[in-house]
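Private note to self, pasted from the team thread so I don't lose it. Backbone tokens:
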């Protein structure tokens, strides 16, 4: 009895594209800064109108 086994070799290459990581980091940091800027605007200018 002979067993035939098909072996698939899969090579996984990890790509670390520094510019892609940097641009994504800058994008999400921008979102966070805009979000906190909006919250600051609400707290300082909109909420005092209701007092």
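Design output:
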């Amino acid at each position: 009895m002979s067993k035939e086994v098909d072996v698939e070799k899969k090579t996984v290459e990890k790509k670390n594209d520094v510019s892609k990581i940097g641009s994504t980091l800058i994008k999400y940091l921008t979102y966070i800064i805009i979000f906190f800027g909006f919250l600051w605007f609400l707290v300082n200018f909109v909420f005092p109108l209701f007092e």
